[in-house]
Write a structure and sequence with these properties.
It comes from Dendrothele bispora (strain CBS 962.96). The protein is mostly helical. The chain contains 4 helices and no strands. It is rod-shaped and about 150 Å long.
Length: about 230
Protein backbone atom coordinates (compact mmCIF):
# COMPACT_ATOMS: atom_id res chain seq x y z
CA UNK A 1 0.00 0.00 0.00
CA UNK A 2 1.36 3.40 -0.99
CA UNK A 3 2.09 5.44 2.16
CA UNK A 4 2.97 8.66 0.33
CA UNK A 5 1.49 11.76 2.05
CA UNK A 6 -0.13 12.72 -1.27
CA UNK A 7 -1.89 9.40 -1.90
CA UNK A 8 -5.22 10.29 -0.28
CA UNK A 9 -5.24 13.72 -1.92
CA UNK A 10 -4.73 12.13 -5.36
CA UNK A 11 -7.48 9.58 -4.63
CA UNK A 12 -10.00 12.27 -3.61
CA UNK A 13 -9.04 14.35 -6.65
CA UNK A 14 -9.65 11.37 -8.96
CA UNK A 15 -13.10 10.79 -7.39
CA UNK A 16 -13.84 14.50 -7.76
CA UNK A 17 -13.00 14.42 -11.49
CA UNK A 18 -15.30 11.44 -12.00
CA UNK A 19 -18.18 13.26 -10.28
CA UNK A 20 -17.52 16.40 -12.34
CA UNK A 21 -17.58 14.39 -15.57
CA UNK A 22 -20.99 12.86 -14.78
CA UNK A 23 -22.28 16.26 -13.61
CA UNK A 24 -21.14 17.87 -16.87
CA UNK A 25 -22.95 15.19 -18.88
CA UNK A 26 -26.18 15.84 -16.99
CA UNK A 27 -25.99 19.64 -17.08
CA UNK A 28 -24.78 19.93 -20.66
CA UNK A 29 -26.67 16.89 -21.91
CA UNK A 30 -29.72 16.59 -24.13
CA UNK A 31 -31.64 19.87 -24.06
CA UNK A 32 -34.63 18.28 -25.81
CA UNK A 33 -35.69 16.24 -22.80
CA UNK A 34 -39.19 16.88 -21.47
CA UNK A 35 -39.67 18.82 -18.24
CA UNK A 36 -39.81 15.88 -15.84
CA UNK A 37 -36.78 14.15 -17.37
CA UNK A 38 -34.82 17.39 -17.22
CA UNK A 39 -35.81 17.94 -13.58
CA UNK A 40 -34.76 14.41 -12.66
CA UNK A 41 -31.40 14.92 -14.39
CA UNK A 42 -30.85 18.20 -12.55
CA UNK A 43 -31.75 16.60 -9.21
CA UNK A 44 -29.21 13.83 -9.79
CA UNK A 45 -26.63 16.47 -10.78
CA UNK A 46 -27.30 18.37 -7.53
CA UNK A 47 -26.75 15.21 -5.46
CA UNK A 48 -23.49 14.55 -7.30
CA UNK A 49 -22.47 18.18 -6.74
CA UNK A 50 -22.87 17.54 -3.00
CA UNK A 51 -20.61 14.48 -3.32
CA UNK A 52 -18.05 16.49 -5.31
CA UNK A 53 -18.18 19.20 -2.64
CA UNK A 54 -17.38 16.58 0.00
CA UNK A 55 -14.39 15.38 -2.07
CA UNK A 56 -13.09 18.97 -2.19
CA UNK A 57 -13.48 19.24 1.60
CA UNK A 58 -11.47 16.03 2.04
CA UNK A 59 -8.78 17.36 -0.32
CA UNK A 60 -8.64 20.55 1.78
CA UNK A 61 -8.06 18.44 4.91
CA UNK A 62 -5.44 16.16 3.33
CA UNK A 63 -3.38 19.07 1.98
CA UNK A 64 -2.46 19.99 5.56
CA UNK A 65 -0.39 16.79 5.84
CA UNK A 66 1.56 17.33 2.59
CA UNK A 67 5.19 18.50 3.03
CA UNK A 68 5.83 22.22 2.52
CA UNK A 69 8.06 21.53 -0.49
CA UNK A 70 5.18 19.84 -2.37
CA UNK A 71 2.25 21.82 -1.01
CA UNK A 72 2.19 24.77 -3.52
CA UNK A 73 1.41 22.58 -6.56
CA UNK A 74 -1.33 20.74 -4.65
CA UNK A 75 -2.79 24.05 -3.47
CA UNK A 76 -3.01 25.09 -7.13
CA UNK A 77 -4.85 21.86 -7.96
CA UNK A 78 -7.20 22.40 -5.01
CA UNK A 79 -8.01 25.96 -6.15
CA UNK A 80 -8.71 24.65 -9.65
CA UNK A 81 -11.08 22.01 -8.25
CA UNK A 82 -12.91 24.61 -6.14
CA UNK A 83 -13.25 26.91 -9.15
CA UNK A 84 -14.61 24.10 -11.32
CA UNK A 85 -17.06 23.06 -8.60
CA UNK A 86 -18.31 26.64 -8.20
CA UNK A 87 -18.80 26.92 -11.98
CA UNK A 88 -20.97 23.82 -12.15
CA UNK A 89 -22.91 24.83 -9.04
CA UNK A 90 -23.75 28.14 -10.74
CA UNK A 91 -24.69 26.32 -13.93
CA UNK A 92 -26.99 24.00 -11.98
CA UNK A 93 -28.60 26.95 -10.22
CA UNK A 94 -29.14 28.80 -13.49
CA UNK A 95 -30.62 25.73 -15.18
CA UNK A 96 -32.99 25.12 -12.28
CA UNK A 97 -34.10 28.76 -12.36
CA UNK A 98 -34.60 28.60 -16.14
CA UNK A 99 -36.57 25.37 -15.86
CA UNK A 100 -38.77 26.79 -13.09
CA UNK A 101 -39.38 29.94 -15.16
CA UNK A 102 -40.31 27.88 -18.22
CA UNK A 103 -42.63 25.74 -16.12
CA UNK A 104 -44.27 28.84 -14.68
CA UNK A 105 -44.76 30.41 -18.10
CA UNK A 106 -46.20 27.15 -19.45
CA UNK A 107 -48.58 26.98 -16.52
CA UNK A 108 -49.66 30.56 -17.11
CA UNK A 109 -50.42 29.85 -20.75
CA UNK A 110 -52.35 26.73 -19.77
CA UNK A 111 -54.28 28.78 -17.18
CA UNK A 112 -55.54 31.13 -19.90
CA UNK A 113 -57.63 28.25 -21.29
CA UNK A 114 -58.87 27.15 -17.87
CA UNK A 115 -62.20 25.36 -17.86
CA UNK A 116 -64.16 24.43 -14.78
CA UNK A 117 -64.07 20.85 -13.61
CA UNK A 118 -65.44 18.73 -10.80
CA UNK A 119 -61.86 17.66 -9.94
CA UNK A 120 -61.35 18.73 -6.28
CA UNK A 121 -57.65 19.36 -6.97
CA UNK A 122 -58.22 21.73 -9.86
CA UNK A 123 -56.58 21.27 -13.25
CA UNK A 124 -53.61 19.01 -13.94
CA UNK A 125 -51.24 21.99 -14.17
CA UNK A 126 -51.96 22.99 -10.56
CA UNK A 127 -51.48 19.42 -9.44
CA UNK A 128 -48.19 19.18 -11.33
CA UNK A 129 -46.94 22.39 -9.77
CA UNK A 130 -47.90 21.11 -6.32
CA UNK A 131 -46.06 17.84 -6.89
CA UNK A 132 -43.05 19.70 -8.28
CA UNK A 133 -43.07 22.02 -5.26
CA UNK A 134 -43.15 19.08 -2.90
CA UNK A 135 -40.29 17.41 -4.78
CA UNK A 136 -38.22 20.60 -4.60
CA UNK A 137 -38.97 20.90 -0.89
CA UNK A 138 -37.90 17.29 -0.29
CA UNK A 139 -34.73 17.83 -2.31
CA UNK A 140 -33.96 21.00 -0.35
CA UNK A 141 -34.51 19.18 2.93
CA UNK A 142 -32.24 16.34 1.83
CA UNK A 143 -29.49 18.76 0.77
CA UNK A 144 -29.80 20.55 4.10
CA UNK A 145 -29.48 17.26 5.96
CA UNK A 146 -26.48 16.27 3.84
CA UNK A 147 -24.84 19.63 4.51
CA UNK A 148 -25.48 19.26 8.23
CA UNK A 149 -24.03 15.73 8.17
CA UNK A 150 -20.95 16.96 6.32
CA UNK A 151 -20.52 19.81 8.80
CA UNK A 152 -20.73 17.38 11.73
CA UNK A 153 -18.23 15.02 10.10
CA UNK A 154 -15.85 17.91 9.41
CA UNK A 155 -16.21 19.12 13.00
CA UNK A 156 -15.51 15.60 14.29
CA UNK A 157 -12.41 15.30 12.09
CA UNK A 158 -11.20 18.71 13.25
CA UNK A 159 -11.65 17.67 16.88
CA UNK A 160 -9.69 14.45 16.26
CA UNK A 161 -6.88 16.42 14.60
CA UNK A 162 -6.69 18.86 17.52
CA UNK A 163 -6.59 15.99 20.01
CA UNK A 164 -3.81 14.30 18.03
CA UNK A 165 -1.84 17.55 17.93
CA UNK A 166 -2.29 17.98 21.68
CA UNK A 167 -1.09 14.42 22.31
CA UNK A 168 1.94 14.97 20.09
CA UNK A 169 2.77 18.22 21.89
CA UNK A 170 2.62 16.44 25.26
CA UNK A 171 4.89 13.69 23.93
CA UNK A 172 7.38 16.28 22.68
CA UNK A 173 7.33 18.07 26.05
CA UNK A 174 7.87 14.77 27.88
CA UNK A 175 10.78 13.91 25.57
CA UNK A 176 12.30 17.33 26.18
CA UNK A 177 12.00 16.89 29.95
CA UNK A 178 13.61 13.43 29.67
CA UNK A 179 16.48 14.93 27.66
CA UNK A 180 16.97 17.65 30.30
CA UNK A 181 17.15 15.03 33.05
CA UNK A 182 19.61 12.95 31.00
CA UNK A 183 21.73 16.04 30.33
CA UNK A 184 21.85 16.86 34.04
CA UNK A 185 22.81 13.27 34.84
CA UNK A 186 25.60 13.35 32.26
CA UNK A 187 26.89 16.65 33.69
CA UNK A 188 26.99 15.20 37.23
CA UNK A 189 28.74 12.06 35.98
CA UNK A 190 31.30 14.18 34.12
CA UNK A 191 32.00 16.22 37.26
CA UNK A 192 32.38 13.02 39.29
CA UNK A 193 34.83 11.54 36.78
CA UNK A 194 36.86 14.77 36.72
CA UNK A 195 37.08 14.74 40.54
CA UNK A 196 38.13 11.08 40.57
CA UNK A 197 40.86 11.71 37.98
CA UNK A 198 42.13 14.68 39.99
CA UNK A 199 42.31 12.60 43.17
CA UNK A 200 44.06 9.80 41.25
CA UNK A 201 46.80 12.19 40.12
CA UNK A 202 47.13 13.54 43.67
CA UNK A 203 47.49 9.99 45.03
CA UNK A 204 50.13 9.21 42.40
CA UNK A 205 52.08 12.33 43.40
CA UNK A 206 51.91 11.40 47.10
CA UNK A 207 52.96 7.81 46.32
CA UNK A 208 55.90 9.04 44.20
CA UNK A 209 56.98 11.40 47.01
CA UNK A 210 56.83 8.57 49.58
CA UNK A 211 58.84 6.29 47.31
CA UNK A 212 61.39 9.07 46.78
CA UNK A 213 61.76 9.64 50.53
CA UNK A 214 62.17 5.89 51.13
CA UNK A 215 64.86 5.69 48.47
CA UNK A 216 66.71 8.64 50.01
CA UNK A 217 66.46 7.04 53.49
CA UNK A 218 67.78 3.74 52.15
CA UNK A 219 70.67 5.52 50.48
CA UNK A 220 71.48 7.38 53.72
CA UNK A 221 71.34 4.17 55.77
CA UNK A 222 73.56 2.30 53.32
CA UNK A 223 76.06 5.17 53.19
CA UNK A 224 76.18 5.39 56.97
CA UNK A 225 76.80 1.66 57.25
CA UNK A 226 79.57 1.73 54.65
CA UNK A 227 81.25 4.76 56.16
Amino acid sequence: MDSSPTTLFDSYEQDFKQFIETIREKLEGDKDQDGEQRKAALRRAEMELDEADEMVSQMDIEIQGIPQSLRPQYQTRLRSAKSELARYKKMSKDLNASLARSSLLGSSRAGAGYSSSDDPYGNSSDRSRLLAGNALLEDGTKRLQDSQRLALETESQGTDILMNLRTQREQIENSRNTLDVANNSISRASNTLTSMIRRMYQQRAVTAAIIGILVILIIIVVWSKLS
